[in-house]
């Protein structure tokens, strides 16, 4: 923590919070995004909340997760049977690992979440949308590699490259 021009200690920046559902017990948890790499634990079952990989979303969890996030959320809309989605999956996984704490990376299976897929008029998969403050700010349709995914996050104000 630094000091201000008056010599007073500078206030710490407000922590960006994530609201995510535990994949094990389904309990909602608030997590400090800056501590994502510390492998936070669920407040109910104490199992790890794994933010270094894409968070699975569905019709029930999508809105709350995206709207309550203090960091941009990149969502990969995909289907298990989709060949291009399978080609892109390792890049989405790498993005989640590289950007944990700076962005939340999630996946939504359009076959299992038709209400959300229709809400965002997903007509082709894979489609990737970045949300900031609950609103869509960048979108791509088609399989892309890591640099294109990073450029989508950059359009939402996320610094590219390795975490500081």
Write structural notes for this entry.
This protein has helices spanning 62-67, 83-99, 114-119, 146-155, and strands at residues 17-21, 28-32, 55-57, 73-78, 104-109, 127-132, 135-141. The chain is an alpha/beta fold. It has a domain at 51-155: Glutaredoxin (3-Layer(aba) Sandwich). The strands form 2 sheets. The protein has a 5-stranded mixed β-sheet. Strands 1-2 form a two-stranded antiparallel ribbon. The radius of gyration is 16 Å and the shape is globular. It starts with 16 loop residues before the first strand and ends in a 9-residue tail after the last helix. The relative contact order is 0.16. One of its GO terms (cellular component) is cytoplasm.
SSE topology sketch:
Layout: E1 17-21, E2 28-32, E3 55-57, H1 62-67, E4 73-78, H2 83-99, E5 104-109, H3 114-119, E6 127-132, E7 135-141, H4 146-155
Parallel strand pairs: 3-5, 4-5
Antiparallel strand pairs: 1-2, 4-6, 6-7
Question: Which terms would index this structure?
Answer:
Thioredoxin, two-stranded antiparallel sheet, Glutaredoxin, transport, 164 residues, Thioredoxin-like_sf, disulfide bond, protein-disulfide reductase activity
The gist of it:
The chain has four helices and seven strands. By secondary structure, it is of the alpha/beta class.
Main sheet strand line-up: 3-5-4-6-7
- Measure the end-to-end span: 16 Å
The CATH homologous superfamily of the domain at 51-155 corresponds to Glutaredoxin
The percent range for strand residues is 15-25%
CATH architecture annotation name of the domain at 51-155:
3-Layer(aba) Sandwich
């Amino acid at each position: 923590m630094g000091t201000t021009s008056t010599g007073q200690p500078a206030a710490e920046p407000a922590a960006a919070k994530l609201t995510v559902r535990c994949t094990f017990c389904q309990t909602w948890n608030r997590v400090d995004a800056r501590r994502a790499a510390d492998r936070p634990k669920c407040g109910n079952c104490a199992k790890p909340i794994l933010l270094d990989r894409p968070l699975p979303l569905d019709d029930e969890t999508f809105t709350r997760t995206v709207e309550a996030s203090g960091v941009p959320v990149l969502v990969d809309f995909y289907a298990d049977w989709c060949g291009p989605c399978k080609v892109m999956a390792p890049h989405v996984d790498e993005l989640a690992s590289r950007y944990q704490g700076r962005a939340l990376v999630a996946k939504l299976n359009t076959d299992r979440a038709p209400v959300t897929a229709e809400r965002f008029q997903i007509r082709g998969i894979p489609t990737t949308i970045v949300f900031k403050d609950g609103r869509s700010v960048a979108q791509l349709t088609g399989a892309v590699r890591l640099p294109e995914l990073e450029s989508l996050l950059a359009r939402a104000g996320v610094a590219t490259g390795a975490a500081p």
